[in-house]
């Protein structure tokens, strides 16, 4: 069974946070594109690390669900932020459950993200975001949980901006 996610409100919220950050740090989307792409790559790695899906040498399971949701929300922040200057029009996505092992799904996401780095355009962005969203069922999350985690991290990010983080 597929799920749908509507991101219109999240793009709006992210745009407001991005404007606040740009004002606080005297910067812009254009000046920070490479930094935001790098941050996305790092956040994907942090999420993969917390799932421990590739750690064949260890018997330890994944980090607690809340940690995974927090890491997923971090990636979502950067993906939303990267879509805004591209003029994203599609805000409703179908989440397609993958049959692939989680490690392989991360491989595909990394590849799509590197392609986005090489060609920062709407087509590559949409592909990377679709693969990222398709992780939701593989991680055992619901759309509602992901949206709540995003909004919780949004609050943290505003607190950080208020405290000169």
> What assembly state would you assign to the polypeptide chains in this entry?
single chain
Mind describing the biggest β-sheet? 2 strands, antiparallel
Tell me the structural class: mainly alpha
Q: Tell me the β content.
A: under 5%
Number of helices: 6
N-to-C series of helices and strands: EHHHEHHH
Q: What coarse outline follows from CA principal-axis ratios?
A: globular
CATH superfamily label: Type II deoxyuridine triphosphatase
Overview of the structural elements:
The chain has six helices and two strands. It is mainly α. The chain has a single domain, classed as Type II deoxyuridine triphosphatase (all-alpha NTP pyrophosphatase fold, Orthogonal Bundle). Strands 1-2 form a two-stranded antiparallel ribbon. The longest helix has 23 residues, at 29-51. The radius of gyration is 15 Å and the shape is globular.
Task: Please specify the SSE layout and strand pairing.
Blueprint: E1 3-6, H1 8-25, H2 29-51, H3 65-83, E2 92-95, H4 102-118, H5 122-138, H6 143-162
Antiparallel strand pairs: 1-2
Helix pairs in contact: 1-3, 1-6, 2-3, 2-4, 3-5, 3-6, 4-5
Give a quick summary of the entry.
69% of the residues lie in helices and 5% in strands.
Q: Key terms for this structure?
A:
165 residues, mainly alpha, all-alpha NTP pyrophosphatase fold, two-stranded antiparallel ribbon, 5% strand
């Amino acid at each position: 069974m597929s799920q749908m996610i509507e991101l219109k409100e999240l793009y709006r919220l992210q745009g407001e946070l991005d404007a606040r950050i740009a004002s606080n740090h005297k910067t812009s989307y254009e000046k920070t594109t490479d930094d935001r792409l790098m941050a996305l790559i790092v956040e994907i790695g942090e999420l993969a690390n917390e799932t421990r899906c590739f750690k064949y040498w260890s018997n330890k399971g994944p980090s607690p669900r809340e940690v995974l949701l927090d890491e997923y929300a971090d990636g979502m922040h950067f993906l939303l932020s990267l879509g805004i200057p591209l003029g994203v029009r599609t805000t409703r996505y179908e989440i397609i459950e993958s049959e692939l092992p989680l490690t392989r799904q991360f491989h595909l996401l990394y590849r799509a993200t590197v392609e986005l780095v090489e060609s920062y355009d709407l087509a590559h962005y949409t592909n990377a975001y679709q693969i990222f969203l398709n992780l939701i069922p593989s991680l055992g999350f619901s759309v509602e949980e992901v949206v709540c985690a995003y909004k919780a991290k949004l609050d943290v990010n505003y607190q950080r901006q208020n405290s000169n983080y």
